[in-house]
Amino acid sequence: MKKIVFLSILVSLALAISMFEAIIPLPVPIAGAKLGLANVVILVTIICFGLKEAIIVTVLKSMLLVLVTGKVASLPYSLTGAILSCIVMGIAYWKFRKYLSPVGISELGSFSFNVGQLFVAGIVLNNFNIFIYLPALLILGVFTGYFVGLSSIFISDKLIKVLK
């Protein structure tokens, strides 16, 4: 029961961060570019609970965000990117946490989110020239991935203490 309560709080927190993030203007004029701050919650979920729980939080956050904002057209892009990012971060944490810090894991998640989102856009638009935006998205992702990784270190350390 305690686990369900914590996961519910994490979903709510990820949703709130995503809604806040949607109103922050970015200096990058690229459709779909965002800071990815809700990935802090996803990475913390991976570290504290595991990949399965993180996927649940990811899917619920994405679905609830669509319900709250009404942006149904963005669901395939955000959901694909978020699930791919979650899976990549989960596998990286599971297999390579001895070699990669949460910052490195977050960077992998940022990269995979952008690739997943552009892949869906390429399918929808029937034009994979959309990948021309990848370098700009990756540059933005390096900075946000670093912040997400650092934040997740601090938060997961505190949450693990609370869970014990």
How would you describe this structure in keywords?
mainly alpha, 164 residues, 6 helices, single chain, 77% helix, 0% strand
Describe the 3D structure.
The chain has helices at residues 2-22, 39-48, 51-69, 75-96, 102-125, 134-163. The protein is an all-alpha fold and 164 residues long. Helix 1 runs antiparallel to helix 2 and helix 3 packs antiparallel against helix 4. The longest helix is centred in the C-terminal third of the chain and has 30 residues, at 134-163. The radius of gyration is 15 Å and the shape is globular. The mean pLDDT is 90.
Helix and strand element order: HHHHHH
State the end-to-end CA separation: 15 Å
* Helix content percent band: over 70%
Tally of helical runs: 6
Q: Rounded to an integer, what's the Rg over CA atoms? A: 15 Å
Class inferred from helices and paired strands:
mainly alpha
**Which stretches of 5+ consecutive residues score pLDDT under 50?**
none
Q: What is the 3D shape? A: globular
Mean pLDDT: 90
Beta-strand share of residues: under 5%
Give me the count of strands: 0
Characterize the largest beta sheet: strand count, sense, and whether it forms a barrel. none
Give the SSE map.
Layout: H1 2-22, H2 39-48, H3 51-69, H4 75-96, H5 102-125, H6 134-163
Helix pairs in contact: 1-2, 1-3, 2-3, 2-4, 2-6, 3-4, 4-5, 5-6
Short structural summary:
The protein has 164 residues and is mainly α.
